[in-house]
Design goal:
Elements (H helix, E strand, L loop, with lengths): L1 E9 L5 E8 L2 H10 L2 E8 L13 H19 L4 H9 L5 H15 L4 H7 L7 H12 L2 H58 L5 H35 L2 H12 L4 H22 L4 H8 L6 H15 L5 H7 L4 H12 L3 H51 L1 H6 L1
Antiparallel strand pairs: 1-2, 1-3
Helix pairs in contact: 2-3, 2-7, 3-4, 4-5, 5-6, 6-7, 7-8, 7-10, 7-15, 10-11, 10-15, 11-12, 14-15
């Protein structure tokens, strides 16, 4: 038996139906559809192809998807049919996995599936809000505008993510280089002097003895310590898979002096940007809150939004339960209260996201400005201390020889 993808309409109602049916030939599928009270329009044999490449969402693929959604919005606004527009977009996609996913999206649309449901079927490709924005756009007849808003939101979210991750690259590289230099000195430089001091005999300064002992420890137990750290990291990852442990860790992160407010601002900005796009597209507030909650990475904040969603569903406002949960910054509550009072909630959410994103950029730049010289100074002092300990013993060689 061969699988055929068909399109047909009900003879009485004219409603379109699409699906997949097994059959020995195209004529056999048409005959089976007619017996079911359908008027067949098309039946195409499903192509047997190799397994598609596995889709892995990273910075590069997210950018490809964002550009594709933006291009699709432009094509739809120009009057191109949806399936044809997806096909044109797919011609410009360089990644094989993303290309296959968009081709599957096009096939779903061609057989009559709404774009919102087709996006849900490709949930690993699009963010949680994509299907809701597409459904709102299809209901209002403004699908192109909704997709343009989706592309803008995805782009802003990616820029915020890259701002934070890029800010950490240089300090992490500097720390890695500093650690590598110190380890190399303890493994290869200090042992050269240890042999010389052993031949001379005598009593060495305490600081020199400490450096020599540290060098022997690194050479003898360095691999053991490295293995223990690896096991500790794997154990911590396994522990964090538990919801209770993840909530405990996320709650602790929010309480840290500098990192906590930064994480809160990042999560609030991402949540506000998503909620603004959904509300502005006509998605009901309760549904928008449930979707926007899924973009929050911090489980403690996501759980708080879940409680707020339940209170809003029962008829309460948005600002009061958000203030009661105590996880959002006061600035966010001020913006939201103003938005509710002026009936411009989507606009104020967008302004809140802009403000918080600007604060995040400024904060990360200040942290880099402080961390870079601090790490450099610590590295210099550590290397200088090791050299000073060795030189103090070398300068006392004459005393050691007399002893």
């Amino acid at each position: 038996m061969t699988q055929f993808r068909y399109r047909a309409v009900f003879a009485r109602t004219g409603e379109l139906k699409a699906g997949i049916m097994d059959g020995t030939s195209k004529d056999a599928v048409f005959e089976a559809l007619r017996r079911s009270g359908l008027m067949p329009l098309e039946a195409r044999e499903e192509a047997k192809s190799a397994a598609p490449a596995k889709l892995r969402l990273n910075t590069a693929t997210r950018k490809i998807v964002t550009n594709a959604v933006g291009e699709l919005a432009v094509l739809l606004d120009s009057g191109l049919p949806l399936d044809r527009a997806i096909g044109v977009v797919n011609e410009h996609i360089p990644d094989a996995a993303v290309k296959a996913a968009f081709e599957e999206l096009r096939e779903h649309v061609k057989v009559g599936m709404p774009l919102a449901k087709a996006m849900q079927a490709n949930s690993g490709l699009f963010p949680p809000m994509a299907s809701a924005l597409a459904e709102a756009g299809e209901a209002s007849g403004q699908l192109g505008s909704s997709l343009a808003r989706l592309a803008e939101t995805m782009n802003r979210t990616a820029v915020l993510r890259e701002t934070v991750s890029s800010a950490l690259v240089y300090p992490v590289m500097l720390l890695a280089i500093a650690g590598g230099v110190i380890i190399l000195m303890l493994l290869f430089v200090v042992p050269q002097f240890e042999a010389m001091f052993a031949d001379l005999g005598g009593k060495l300064p305490p600081a020199t003895l400490f450096i020599l002992g540290l060098s022997r420890f690194v050479r003898s137990y360095g691999l053991v310590v490295l293995a223990a750290m690896l096991l500790l990291w794997l154990g911590l990852r396994h522990w964090l898979r538990s919801p209770a442990a993840r909530d405990m860790a996320d709650r602790a992160v929010l309480r840290l002096p500098v990192l906590g407010p930064l994480v809160t601002a990042v999560e609030t900005a991402r949540f506000s940007r998503t909620l603004a796009s959904l509300v502005d597209s006509g998605v009901p507030l309760v549904t928008a809150l449930a979707i926007a909650r899924r973009v929050i990475a911090n489980s403690h904040m996501a759980e708080a939004v879940g409680r707020v969603t339940e209170e809003v569903r029962e008829g309460g406002g948005l600002t009061r339960p958000l203030a009661a949960c105590g996880v959002f910054p006061p600035l966010a509550l001020t913006f939201l209260r103003t938005g509710e009072e002026t009936a411009r909630l989507a606009f104020m959410l967008g302004q809140l996201a802009e403000t918080l994103e600007r604060d995040v950029r400024n904060t990360t730049q200040r942290l880099i400005a402080v961390m870079t010289p601090a790490v450099t100074i610590c590295l210099g002092l550590t290397v200088a201390g090791i050299i000073a300990c060795i030189m103090s013993a070398i300068l006392g060689i004459n005393d050691l020889a007399l002893q």
